[in-house]
Amino acid sequence: MAPLAGSSTASFQNTENPKPKLPIPEPIYSNIPGTWAYDTMSRRVDEEILQRTYEDNKDVLEREDFGTIRSKFDALRKDLQTSSKLQMLEELPSDASPERKREWQEWKTILQPFLDRQDTWLTAPWMVTEFYVYRRLIEAIGFWDQDSPGYLYDPFVKQKRAGLESSVGSAEAMLAKIPNLPKSSSEGINLAASIALWGNKMDLSLWPADASHATIDIFSTILDKAQENLLHDDSDKLAAHGEQLRQRGGGNVDIIVDNAGFELITDLALAQFLVDSGIASSVTFQLKSHPTFVSDALERDLLEHVEHYANLDPSIYPNARQSGEKWETFLKDGKWKCNEDNFWVQAFAMWDMTEPLRTDLKERCDLAFVKGDANYRRLLGDCKWDMTASFEDVVGAYFPCPVCALRTLKAEIGCGMDADQIERAQSLDDNWQTNGRFGVLHFGSGASN
Length: 449
Ligand SMILES: O=P(O)(O)OC[C@H]1O[C@](O)(CO)[C@@H](O)[C@@H]1O
Fold this sequence. Notes:
Pfam families: ARMT1-like_dom
Bound molecules: 6-O-phosphono-beta-D-fructofuranose
Family: Belongs to the damage-control phosphatase family. Sugar phosphate phosphatase III subfamily.
Radius of gyration: 21 Å
Enzyme class: hydrolase
Helix content: 40-55%
Shape: globular
Number of strands: 7
Distance between the termini: 41 Å
Number of helices: 16
CATH class of the largest domain: Alpha Beta
CATH architecture of the largest domain: 3-Layer(aba) Sandwich
CATH topology of the largest domain: Rossmann fold
Strand order of the largest sheet: 1-7-6-5-2-3-4
GO biological process, one term: DNA damage response
Keywords: Hydrolase, Manganese, Metal-binding
Number of domains: 2
């Protein structure tokens, strides 16, 4: 089934923000059988992700006081199973805080064009519906409702903890490398970035975690294949920019974080290197404001990861323990900061970044690392760009500051890859766009206005 005529709304707000330099193509829809987007929205989210969420939270979901939450959770699953029409989020109580009202209004802005068209879960753009699943889950839980038994309840905590525990074995070997990386040559920043890039392969929404891998160093094998599996590599540009920041005494670097668990440990390792090398005088972790996409990290996850590592047994995990202690100091000294923002859990294209976040990045941030597949999809507005279209013209042209995307490919979307690399990946692997085997490192200079 082709997308509905006139349904190409990739940009949900009419902001004055700078836009990509090239004409914006159609977004991805999830109504074409055989595509990964279709499988995700018609089956995977309900049968795998929400089913596992139910199993992980069975003890609370079957409690009497969770009755209303359970009904809303089941209703969400039913809506997905029947691909019903989208509906607006529930109205807020009149005494809701300005923050909640604003967040609700932003979702209204996102959803209204598709509510007007009576779109279903499959006919609205994929990015909208996939983010909306998690927002509906948060609504069902009553995550922000102080009177709800689900107040601030994280349904993914069990998986995130398992991911944290199983990260240690691989992380011990990886963290041993970080203090020894050369600080002023491109080799150091390139290896630290490569570690954070390939950390994105270890994604719990695709490959659920269990603690049984806690002593196995799987990641070394992944890193061995890093260069071979990279389909675009701007690490020279990244290193040159990093060196400029280092020479002027260090910049403000942000990491727009993706998954908790092993990937987050690789982000902390990157941030450690950035501070130790003098490339960054401060690192801000941009984190999700509510549980989403199963494994995406909140501030509390980050703090829990740091604490876990700082308390590891030093006779078994000396390097991981030492890093954990160092990370605690960075947080205490204010060299590392955490910032949660609703924008990171919304389906806006990144060129429609909301305020005050956009102005903050524009004025304060000297380099933003954008981690993972879902964030990358948003960089591209989840639109079907020509895969060879330059990253600078698509993202570098509008992003509010210099930007480096570190992504393993998990969705049928991309840009900035040479045709011969695309052909190589196609010939090696039928599922090259979605199975996380291949990665890209893109650098964009950012909009000047
Ligand atoms: O954790 P990441 O890298 O953002 O990956 C999550 C993304 O991957 C997928 O699971 C597949 O595209 C999406 O559902 C989601 O956009």
